[in-house]
Design a protein that fits this description.
Blueprint (H helix, E strand, L loop, with lengths): L7 H4 L6 E8 L6 E12 L15 E7 L8 E9 L10 E6 L9 E3 L3 E8 L5 E9 L13 H6 L3 E2 L5 E8 L6 H4 L29 E10 L19 E17 L4 E14 L4 H4 L6 H5 L10 H5 L2 H9 L5 H8 L5 H9 L22 E4 L35 H12 L57
Antiparallel strand pairs: 1-2, 2-11, 3-4, 3-12, 4-7, 5-6, 7-8, 9-10, 10-11, 12-13, 12-14
Helix pairs in contact: 7-8
C-alpha cells in the first residue's frame, strides 16, 4: 500500500514492484512537472552485503496521456546496467565511496556501480535516447562507507540536453500508512472501539518509517507534456490535463544457463507491473485479477469498471464497523453504484461533480491514471490553502489532482469510500457523522522530504537502523 506488494506476481519480484507514483507541478519551478516513480518496496537500510538496485533486466517506463484516450502519447524509458569492478571480493565498496569527478559517472571505491540511459518515445513511436551512462548513487550504508551521502546523491542529479532533469537511485520512503492495522481485518486504530472486534482506540503507526525505496524522478517542462506543446492558458483549457502512469516490463523469455548461475533474457518486452492511482490494484481489484490488471494499459480499464462502481472495501466498512455507518449501509443496501469513486479513480472529476474546482478530466475514457491539471498553481506545506487532504480538504493543488509527496492518500481514499464524496453525485445523501474521523492515523515522516528536486530526502543509512536494540525478554540469553 499504496502499491507495495499489491499483487501475487509483484510480491515475488520486488524490482518490478512500482510502489508509488507522484505527479505535481514543481513548487520551486512552476513551469515544470515532476514525476516520481518508486520501486523495490520496504527496504531495510542495513541490507548488506548485497544492497538494493534497479533490475538490469527490466524496462522501467513513465507514460503520459495528453489527449484523454488512455494511451501514451509520451513515454520515458529507463534501462539500467550494473558492473562489478572487482569480481574477487564480496564487498559492495572497497573503501569510502566518493562522488564522481565533474563530467564523470564513476564513484570511487564503489564495486557495484549502476548506470542507466533514458529515452523518450513520442506519438510517432520512435524511441530517442536522451542521455546514456547516467550514474545511480550507491545505497546509504553508513558513516564509514558513505559519510557524505548528500554529495553522493547530488552528483546523480543530471540535466538532459532536451531540458529535463533526472535522478535514479535510493531515497527515503515518503509514503506513510499503518499496514499492520489495516491488513488486520481492516483495522483503523483511531476507530478501534467501533470495530466488529473492538480494541482500545490508539494513534496510527507509520509502518514505513525508516524504510527506503528506489526512485526514478524526472522534472519536465510543461511545454514538453501538453498536446499542443504549449503552456495551457488556464485550468479550464482543453490541454491542461495530463494522465500519468508507470510500468515495468520484462522480456518474454528467460533461460536459466545450467550450471553457470546465470540467465539469458530474450524476446520483446511485455508489461508486468503498472501503477497510476494509489490503492486501486491494492484494494479495489480482486486478487484473481491483480496480475492481469498489471499487464493491461489504462485504455482497457472498462473491463474493471464493475470493481470500481461497487468497491468491495466500501461494502466492508459498515460490516467491519457495525452501527457506525448507517447511511452508507442503507445506500449500498439500495443497490446504488458509486459514480463518485468512478470519477476519482477512473475518469477524472468533471465540473458537473465539483464545480468549485478546475476539472482534471482529460477525456471520456475509463482509464486508471493519475490525472494532473498542470495549470493549477502548486500549494506547499505551510502555504495558504494547503491541506494534506487535497481536494476534499479544499486544496485543489493536491490529490486527486495529481499527487504530492505529503498528500494523505490513505485517509482521502478511505473517507471517499466511506461516503464523504457521495453528496457530489447525490445531493440527498447525508454523510455519516464518523466519516470525518476515518483515517489509519499514520503520521508522515517530515525528514523524508526536501524542497528541491528530487524532493524525496536522502535514504536512511544502515549503520543507524534500527536506532536502538530491542530490550531482551527477561530470562532469555
Amino acid at each position: 500500500m499504496s502499491s507495495h506488494r499489491e499483487a501475487p506476481g509483484t510480491s515475488k519480484d520486488p524490482v518490478i514492484d512500482s510502489t508509488d507514483l507522484y505527479a505535481f507541478v514543481s513548487p520551486d519551478k512552476p513551469g515544470t512537472v515532476t514525476i516520481i516513480a518508486n520501486y523495490i518496496p520496504l527496504q531495510d537500510p542495513a541490507a548488506g552485503p548485497n544492497f538494493f538496485e534497479f533490475g538490469d533486466d527490466v524496462m522501467y517506463g513513465i507514460h503520459i496521456d495528453n489527449n484523454g484516450d488512455g494511451l501514451a502519447e509520451i513515454t520515458y524509458n529507463f534501462r539500467f546496467k550494473t558492473e562489478t569492478v572487482d569480481p574477487d571480493t564480496f564487498l559492495y565498496n572497497t573503501s569510502t565511496i566518493t562522488p564522481p569527478a565533474p563530467g564523470s559517472a564513476k564513484y570511487a571505491n564503489f564495486n557495484r556501480p549502476q548506470t542507466y540511459y533514458v529515452s523518450r518515445v513520442d506519438a510517432d513511436g520512435k524511441d530517442r535516447i536522451l542521455a546514456a551512462g547516467l550514474p545511480c548513487p550507491p545505497c546509504n550504508i553508513g558513516p564509514r562507507s558513505t559519510p557524505n551521502y548528500p554529495a553522493l546523491s547530488a552528483a546523480a542529479v543530471r540535466q538532459l540536453p532536451d531540458g529535463e532533469t533526472v535522478f535514479a537511485g535510493q531515497r527515503a520512503e515518503g509514503f506513510f500508512v499503518d499496514l499492520g492495522s489495516i491488513f488486520d481485518l481492516g483495522g483503523l486504530r483511531p476507530l478501534n472501539s467501533h470495530h466488529l472486534i473492538p480494541l482500545a482506540n490508539a494513534a496510527g503507526i507509520n509502518s514505513l518509517a525508516s524504510k527506503n525505496v528506489h526512485s526514478i524522478a524526472i522534472q519536465i517542462p510543461i511545454t514538453k507534456l501538453t498536446s499542443g506543446g504549449r503552456t495551457p492558458s488556464g485550468p479550464t483549457a482543453s490541454d491542461a490535463v495530463i494522465g500519468v502512469w508507470t510500468t515495468a516490463s520484462r522480456q518474454t523469455v528467460k533461460m536459466i544457463n545450467a550450471g553457470k548461475g546465470t540467465a539469458t533474457d530474450s524476446g520483446p518486452y511485455v508489461q508486468v507491473s503498472r501503477l497510476g492511482m494509489p490503492l486501486v490494484n491494492e484494494v479495489v481489484v480482486p486478487v484473481s485479477l491483480k496480475d492481469y490488471f498489471n499487464s493491461q494499459p489504462p485504455a482497457k480499464d472498462a473491463q474493471f469498471a464493475a470493481a470500481v462502481e461497487n468497491p468491495e472495501l466500501a461494502k466492508l466498512i459498515p460490516v467491519l464497523y457495525p452501527g457506525a455507518f448507517p447511511n452508507l449501509a442503507a445506500y449500498q443496501a439500495a443497490g446504488k453504484t458509486r459514480p463518485d469513486i468512478v470519477a476519482i479513480f477512473a475518469t477524472g472529476i468533471p465540473a458537473s461533480i465539483l464545480p468549485s474546482a478546475p476539472t482534471n478530466v482529460g477525456g471520456k475514457a475509463i482509464a486508471e491514471m493519475l490525472r494532473l491539471n498542470v495549470a493549477v498553481a502548486p500549494t506547499t506545506v505551510g502555504s495558504k490553502g494547503y491541506s494534506a487532504l487535497g481536494v476534499i480538504g479544499g486544496d485543489i493543488g493536491g490529490f486527486p489532482n495529481g499527487r504530492r509527496l505529503q498528500d494523505d492518500v490513505v485517509t482521502i481514499e478511505l473517507q471517499a469510500l466511506a461516503g464523504a464524496t457521495i453528496p457530489l453525485v447525490d445531493k440527498t445523501y447525508k454523510v455519516d457523522a464518523v466519516v470525518s474521523a476515518v483515517s489509519d492515523g499514520a503520521p508522515s515522516e517530515p525528514s523524508c522530504y526536501r524542497s528541491t528536486f528530487p524532493y524525496l530526502a536522502d535514504p536512511h543509512d544502515g549503520y543507524d537502523n534500527p536506532s536502538t536494540t530491542p530490550t531482551a525478554t527477561p530470562g532469555s540469553k
